[in-house]
Amino acid sequence: MSAEHKPALSIIKDVQRQTSQQYTAEEKSRIVLEGLQGEQSVANLPTTNF
Q1: Alpha-carbon separation of residue 16 from 33, 36, 41 (angstroms)
Q2: What is the DSSP string of 1-50?
Q3: How many CA atoms lie within 13 A of 48 on its CB side?
Q4: Per-residue burial over 8-31, b = 16 or more CB atoms within 10 Å of its CB, e = otherwise
Q5: φ and ψ at 48, to 5 degrees?
Q6: What are the residues whose beta carbons fall under 8 Å from the beta carbon of 39, sequence distance 6 or more?
Q7: pLDDT tens digit sequence for 1-50
Q8: How far apart are CA 7 and CA 41, in angstroms?
Q9: Are 27 and 46 in contact (CB under 8 A)?
């Protein structure tokens, strides 16, 4: 299958994979520790800026 005939869904997944947020080890640790405190939902923690 050539790039010209690649299904649209495959192209979308490739773009999402390349543009996904990547967190540093420090950010991951902060998210885990704050999640364990239970003050906020873990899903909301990566979006908060400190």
Answers
A1: 28, 29, 24
A2: --GGG--HHHHHHHHHHHHS----HHHHHHHHHHHHHTSS-TTTGGG---
A3: 13
A4: eeeeeeeeeeeeeeeeeeeeeebe
A5: -85, 140
A6: none
A7: 455 677 888 888 888 888 777 888 998 898 888 888 887 777 777 666 55
A8: 36
A9: yes
Q: Which two tokens stand for residue 50?
A: 């400190």
Q: Which two tokens stand for residue 4?
A: 């010209």
Question: Two tokens at 9?
Answer: 């869904």
Length of the chain: 50
